[in-house]
Amino acid sequence: MIALLLLVLFLPIILAPMETAGWWSRRRVSRTNEPELSKPPGAPPKIQLVYFTGVAGYSGDFLARREKALLDSIAEQFPGMRVHHEIFPYSSSNLPLDGERVFRKLWMWLHNWRLKIPNNVFDALIVIRNVGQLLVSSDPRYGPVFNEGLAEQLRARLHPDIPTVFLAYSGGAQMAVGAADELRQVLEYRAPLHLIALGGVFTDDPGIHAFDSVTQLLGSRDYWVPWLGWLLFPGLWRWQFWSAWNRYRRSPRFQKVVPGKHCHVGKSDYFGFAEASPGQSYGERTSEVVSSVIRGKLRVS
Amino acid sequence: MIALLVCLSILFVAGFLTVATASFTHFAIVGSIRETFREFLIQTGLFIASAYFWAVTVWAGVYWLAEGVSLTLLVEILGASHFPLLVYPLTIVPTIGFRLEQLLRLAVYALFVSALIVVVDMSPLLAALVCLPGWFFHFVTQEARMLKKGRR
Which of A38, A265, B19, B111 is the most buried (most CB within 10 A)? Predict the structure, then answer.
């Protein structure tokens, strides 16, 4: 019984590469008819911010109220900033969980259930599914294909000459690392790229070197989720001093900031409405720190 | 004779499973089922050929360094050493499978070296050195073929 339960739980991880394989085979067929990617229409923004949600994400279009509040608060401080949150980072083709999928109804049911009762036990299925895609992105065999898909989605939306800041929560950090590497290498994206990770789960993906800077915001009560990445990826272990991650971590391009007593999930997480200090919520504190990091990195007021 | 057949069967099945799994993990599968199967058989043939080449390099090394050993015996050992690759399909699991892939390749090497130490009565260091070039060629050529057929 336990073995069966484990199999059901791990099935989304075992089958995770299938989605990328399917996308890749379809893309290989249609590649010859593909139009050239052009600059997005409209006046270029001053800064571009790409938001990648955590492993509990459901689609690019759907964001929790707390996440929206954080993004709005950051955007308010930078007139001319264009925010992109419409990309679902856990799919190489930006296909949301309620898109044309075999298990569409299951995901929709789970999502509706989540809206009624937040953080219920069935949430774990969505999390496991997305963790599977995170592992695909960080795998040296599947990763380049998955990340190329994600990078193409980004390139269709981002202005190639404008600095881009990735704001990634939890597992979204690895997806940003994978996509940035492909943006740089395959799609020859030259504008500065910065990553601000909120409790980011990193892997030993060498793509981290594609970023001009990486800032890890880690609350003093947020330890076990980022630690999971450390457990699974030996390249994060300190004694592997030659690994891509350790070389980047030692460089001045990497910065670790403790914004406060944030935890990873809950009322006092990076988006939390709970009071962190008199008159300031955890989300507001995050927004303040993120904005100051953006100002420092891009030298904008 | 039966031992040789059993060991060659292990080598063939291990080669086929390795090639089929690696074709998937490197996104190298194209065409119809028939074409794919034919491609798998060709790749398996190349896998067995490079394994045979490995046995020949070891045979030449042993002949030069110590007493001669029968090539048939080495092929038997080689076939049996590929036993760990029978679980190669498990390497499709992302990330964890990649680590497993490396471990399985190392296991094949370790098994072949251990068997050689017992059969030829060589020093462990010498046996490890004699087996290294062939093992490297065996897996590197396979990886290179997959990468060429896959995305990069």
Answer: B19
